């Protein structure tokens, strides 16, 4: 393997990584040499993903640490686990998110709106606060937030989710400005419609799927592994001059 995308010696913490985009990112980072901490709400799901990743890469690259992103205490336990186990975290990927409401903004309950904002924005802020200081002290590190093309446009059915993802993009820009002088890069990945359980309400809806496919250059929706390469890029030397960006991977849906 060339050195440009080599993650050997790096430690990555990835939230929401027992399935979907997060698991694909964990798998590819491990494949490129990193040690990865797999985290999601359920211990069993984390352990299953870890077993799958380690079997695929042929080494003990992944370890599980369940955490609920809605709990600051559990996120602190995740950060502490990674630091105690490995002594450092080089790459943080804030991928976990939630969307408990599907419909127009006029009908969303306060509790649902607050949950979306807390899980999709505030939890990222918390975990970054916990792990960025040791990156800044060492003068090197990468933070990647998985946002969405929803943060770039309106929706009549996932508006609150889109608001949270737009806020993530501003979080990334602000932190890139704050952390850059200390060698820490902060970026966002903005996937289009990806075939995951999380987005099932969209791609299982024939009308929404037809609209999404018709409005993209590639005329299809994406797969989780098609997002993972960007996460590897951003954590590697290949991404060493990239910061403060929201990198769109959507099959051309936002340009048509």
What does this 3D model show about the protein?
The protein has 256 residues and is of the alpha/beta class. The chain has a single domain (11-193, 223-249), classed as 3-Layer(aba) Sandwich (Rossmann fold). The protein is built from 8 helices and 7 strands; from the N terminus they run βαβαβαβαβαβαααβ. Strand 2 (35-39), helix 2 (43-57) and strand 3 form a beta-alpha-beta unit. Helix 1 (20-31) packs parallel to helix 2 and helix 1 (20-31) crosses helix 8 (225-235). The protein is globular and about 45 Å long. The model has no long low-confidence stretch (mean pLDDT 95).
CATH superfamily, called what?
NAD(P)-binding Rossmann-like Domain
- Number of helical regions: 8
Structural category: alpha/beta
What CATH architecture would you give? 3-Layer(aba) Sandwich
Helix content: 40-55%
Percent of residues in β-strands: 5-15%
Mean pLDDT: 95
Number of domains: 1
- Spans of at least 5 consecutive residues whose pLDDT stays below 50 are none
Distance between the termini: 37 Å
Specify the overall morphology.
Answer: globular
* CATH classification class: Alpha Beta
The total of beta strands comes to: 7
Q: What's the gyration radius in Å?
A: 17 Å
Q: What strand order characterises the main sheet?
A: 3-2-1-4-5-6-7
Order of helices and strands: EHEHEHEHEHEHHHE
> Any idea of the CATH topology?
Rossmann fold
């Amino acid at each position: 393997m060339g050195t440009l995308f080599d993650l050997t010696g790096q430690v990555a913490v990835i939230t929401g990584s027992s399935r979907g985009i997060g698991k694909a990112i964990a798998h590819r980072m491990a494949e490129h040499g990193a040690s990865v901490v797999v985290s999601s709400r359920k211990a069993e799901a984390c352990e299953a993903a870890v077993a799958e990743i380690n079997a695929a890469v042929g080494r003990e690259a992944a370890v599980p640490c369940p955490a609920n992103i809605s709990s600051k205490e559990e996120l602190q336990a995740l950060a502490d686990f990674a630091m105690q186990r490995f002594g450092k975290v080089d790459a943080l990927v804030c991928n976990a998110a939630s969307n408990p409401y599907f419909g127009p903004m006029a009908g969303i309950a306060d509790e649902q709106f607050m949950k979306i904002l807390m899980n999709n924005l505030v939890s990222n802020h918390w975990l970054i606060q916990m792990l960025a200081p040791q990156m800044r002290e060492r003068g090197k590190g990468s933070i990647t937030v998985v946002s969405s093309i929803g943060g770039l446009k309106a929706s009549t059915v996932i508006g609150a989710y889109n608001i949270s993802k737009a806020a993530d993009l501003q979080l990334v820009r602000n932190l890139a400005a704050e952390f850059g002088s200390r060698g820490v890069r902060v970026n966002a990945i903005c996937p289009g419609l990806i075939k995951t359980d999380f987005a099932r309400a969209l791609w299982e809806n024939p009308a929404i799927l037809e609209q999404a496919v018709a409005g993209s250059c590639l005329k299809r929706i994406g797969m989780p592994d098609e997002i993972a390469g960007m996460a590897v890029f951003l954590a590697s030397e290949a991404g060493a001059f990239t910061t403060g960006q929201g990198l769109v991977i959507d099959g051309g849906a936002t340009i048509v």
